[in-house]
Amino acid sequence: MGKGRLEAFSDGVIAIIITIMVLELKVPHGADWDTLAPLAPVFLSYVLSFIYVGIYWNNHHHTMHAINKVNGSVLWANLHLLFWLSLIPFVTGWMGENHFGQVPVVIYGGVLTMCALAYMLLVSILIRLHGKDSALGQAVGSDKKTWLSIGLYVAGMALAFVHPWLGASLYVIVALIWFIPDRRIEKHLNH
Fold first, then answer.
1. What is the tens place of the pLDDT at every residue in 35-53?
2. CA atoms in the 13 A half-sphere facing the CB of 48
3. Quick one: pLDDT at residue 179?
4. Residue 64 contacts residue 80 (beta carbons within 8 Å)
């Protein structure tokens, strides 16, 4: 079956996720700089999560560009990914409202870990459907970058028990690693 509905549905869900996150930003009561200071953790968690959702949207787009068909397993794997992505607004709000408290930072890292695992599962199923010699299969290879990210998420969760900002800093590092879109697929498709 074609991939058009999967792409359209995924784009819609991701757009809703971003909309929900921005609606969590409450307008301060006051017109001076002091009224913004308490909102800094909320805004920082929003920026980090917006970047993460953008990274997933961008990489999902590139992945879908490299394939030409989907099946039932792909549809379910994609829904699995969207489920974990849909939890990002909740953990973002919780982490921001609680000024990067220990438990919210750990749970945020857990959701990021599950997003990464879900994306890896989706890509694995797509490669199984299209073959290891497909454009996607050749472009992804061993996927060391994803495994490194998962390791940093787990380390961030552990470090959050020492100090939440240490854990959060590892989540920022992973976002920076992925901020430039994964060019493996583009490079492979252009050759």
1. 988 899 999 999 999 999 9
2. 25
3. 84
4. no
Per-residue tokens: 80: 């699995």
pLDDT at position 180 is 74
Phi-psi domain of 131 (left: phi exceeds 0; alpha: psi -120 through 50; beta: other): left
Q: What is the mean pLDDT of the chain?
A: 93
User: How many domains are contained in the chain?
Assistant: 1
Q: Is 79 exposed, middle or buried (0-12, 13-18, 19+ CB in 10 A)?
A: middle
Q: Is 35 helix (H, G, I), strand (E, B) or coil?
A: helix
What is the rounded distance in angstroms from the CA atom of residue 104 to the CA atom of residue 42?
12
47 touches 110 (CB < 8 A): no
CA 119/CA 137 separation, integer angstroms: 14
Rounded CA-CA distance 93/24 in Å is 7
Domain hosting 90: range is 4-190
**Of the candidates 124, 133, 116, the residue with the CA atom closest to the CA atom of residue 178:** 116
User: Could you report the per-residue pLDDT of 120-160, keeping only the tens digit for each?
Assistant: 999 999 999 999 999 899 888 778 889 999 999 999 999 99
- In terms of DSSP H, where are the helices of the chain? 4-23, 40-65, 72-86, 88-97, 102-130, 135-140, 144-160, 164-179, 184-190
* Higher pLDDT, residue 180 or 51: 51
> Which token pair is 169?
């800093």
Residue indicated by tokens 């308490």: 38
